[in-house]
Specification:
Elements: H1 2-8, E1 13-16, E2 22-25, H2 27-32, H3 48-51, H4 53-66, E3 68-77, E4 80-93, E5 96-105, H5 107-121, H6 131-148, E6 151-159, H7 162-169, H8 171-186, E7 194-199, E8 202-210, H9 213-231, E9 235-236, E10 239-240, E11 244-251, H10 258-270, E12 277-278, H11 281-302, E13 306-315, E14 321-332, E15 336-338, H12 344-349, H13 353-374, E16 380-384, H14 387-391, H15 394-406, E17 413-418, H16 427-437, E18 440-446, H17 453-458, E19 463-466, H18 480-492, E20 496-500, H19 505-513, E21 518-520, E22 528-529, H20 530-537
């Protein structure tokens, strides 16, 4: 009965002498040795080189004292040593003492433990340090900095349009872009620095061993510039290059704990939409103000407080309204009707521009379709894009969705950008992408910025609107030659010319003489509500 139970046990078992020689082994133990005969062979459990002399002595002493022992040892198989859980028990047979050993393979458990440990300290997407390892490294770095009376810096890093990246590229492509970004960033750091991926495309860089604040500030500028340049080479969808948002904080200047250091770096990141930002006490008040502004804009969207006014663009030959420009206004419950200058900058700084731009595009498309069905001569609806919107990853997907949802033909949507938007290195690629979608593009306020003539001429722009500064002095200043030269330049590019800011009869006459196909200004029509524009179309 003992022999049957012994051999049938799923756990490998062996009956051995106290000096470690096998008397009997179970079938499952033989499988560990590829069925090699083991009777009268010394068990590897007592191999001092494998276990260590002190471990072997401890086990033998326990068996002599208590008659049993349980613990972890190494066991030699035909494939090599494996970790095993061992239980030894003294048994009596024919008045002699023998030891019964039951073994359990711990290899899979050990491998699982290693995987769990790796998951806790290594980010699976990028293979960089995880948030847990970063916190541990921060604690260690702070302890060293205390002893050496030094500083350390934590920099948080993320793509400028982090939210739109995944929505635009899709999960797989966005993950691939984040992996490429990780590889690019890690090449720019020192061996003693720690770069961690915190998830969703956000990174953290721990920079220890800084002697003083001057060195820290200098290092922040150099590091963020190197990371920015590296990110600019990363492929992120159809357009090349990623723009980074970077914010940092110093220990112990700004914080005295790991948690506080991370919070202050987060505050700096929130203020770093245009350039890298180190935390300063003044940021706290700015952020509180931004939170208030963000909440107000979100509430205004929920309560339908934003409205669109429309300004006509008139055809100089027919005198009819050719197109309409949609201009956002905020019907504030306390402050009255607010122009874009009072809230657009805050919307961009607080991350509300995507929601606001979405609403403007949809509302303008919906309203224009209603008018165009009644007045087929209307060509298109103009919508302004800020430089931030123009660069955003979500822009192309948003426009596709709006055109599909509203039914507006792509050629009836004209997006207006400024020369500031053209300073983006990927501006030409973005314009090509939009042109391929079929939408029209207009360069607004031309002449106010530093864009090169060759750059503008090469782009597939439908229309160029001259900055109003060139016509407003007329007839009170001698700027007609300057305006005439600009008009000739635009016409030489084979782009449609629009003279803006027409406020008196002489300005209108001059625009017509210069061959401007369209004109826009308060002399002809001010921006008005949708109801007022409808009344202009149908006076009766």
């Amino acid at each position: 009965m003992f022999a049957a139970a012994f051999d049938a046990s799923p756990l490998p078992q062996a009956l051995m002498t106290p000096d470690g020689r096998y008397l009997q082994v179970s079938r499952s133990l033989l499988l560990w040795h590829n069925d090699a005969p083991l009777v009268d062979t010394l068990s590897s459990l007592w191999n001092e080189k494998l276990q260590g002399p002190s471990m072997v002595k401890m086990v033998r002493d326990a068996m002599a004292r208590k008659g049993s022992w349980s613990g972890e040892l190494q066991y030699q198989t035909h494939k090599g040593p494996i970790p095993v859980q061992v239980h030894l028990q003294v048994v009596v047979k024919d008045k002699d003492n023998y030891w019964l050993a039951s073994l359990q393979d711990l290899s899979l458990r050990k491998q699982a433990d290693l995987r769990l440990q790796k998951m806790a300290y290594v980010d699976p997407l990028t293979q960089l340090a995880s948030a847990g390892l970063l916190a541990d490294r921060c604690s260690q770095a702070i302890a060293r900095a205390k002893r050496a009376q030094q500083l350390l810096m934590l920099i948080l890093i993320q793509p400028l349009d982090q939210a739109g990246l995944r929505a635009t590229l899709g999960t797989d492509a966005a993950d691939s872009a984040i992996q490429s970004l990780a590889l690019a960033l890690v090449k720019q750091i020192r061996h003693e620095d720690t770069l961690a991926h915190l998830g969703q495309g956000r990174f953290a860089l721990l920079v220890p061993d800084l002697k003083d604040k001057n060195q820290a500030v200098s290092a922040f500028g150099l590091i963020t510039e190197k990371l920015r340049a590296a990110a600019g080479q990363v492929q992120a969808g159809p357009s090349n290059g990623m723009e980074l948002q970077q914010g940092g904080a110093l220990w112990p200047e700004d914080a005295n704990t790991v948690q506080r250091l991370q919070q202050q770096a987060e505050q700096a990141l929130l203020s770093a939409s245009n350039h890298p930002q180190l935390f300063t006490p003044a940021l706290q008040k700015q952020l509180e103000k931004r939170r208030t502004e963000a909440s107000a804009i979100e509430q205004a969207l929920d309560c339908d407080e934003f409205v669109l006014h429309y300004q006509p663009l008139l055809n100089t030959e027919s005198g009819e309204t050719d197109s309409l420009e949609a201009l956002i206004r905020w019907q504030h419950p306390d402050r009255g009707l607010l122009l874009p200058g009072a809230f657009l900058e805050q919307a961009e700084a607080t991350g509300n521009m995507q929601a606001l731009g979405n609403w403007v595009l949809r509302e303008a498309a919906r309203q224009f379709l209603h008018w165009q069905q009644q007045h087929p001569h209307l060509q298109c609806i103009h919508v302004n894009l800020s430089a931030q919107q123009f660069r955003a990853h979500y822009l192309l997907a948003l426009i596709r969705d709006v055109l599909a949802d509203t039914g507006l033909p792509a050629e009836q949507l004209c997006l207006e950008i400024t020369e500031k938007a053209l300073q983006w290195p990927q501006a030409a690629d973005r314009i090509d992408e939009l042109h391929l979608m079929g939408v029209r593009l207009a360069l607004d306020d031309y002449g106010a910025g530093p864009s090169a003539i060759q750059q503008v001429a090469a782009m597939p722009l439908y229309q160029i609107k001259l900055d109003r500064q060139f016509i407003q002095p007329i007839p009170h200043a001698r700027t007609e030659k300057q305006l005439s030269g600009l008009a000739a330049l635009v016409q030489g590019m084979d782009k449609q010319l629009v003279v803006c800011g027409v406020e008196n009869a002489r300005q209108l006459e001059l625009a017509q003489q210069l061959g401007s196909q369209l004109v826009q200004g308060f002399l002809l029509a001010e921006p008005q509500s949708a109801e007022a524009i409808s009344a202009l179309f149908d006076p009766t």
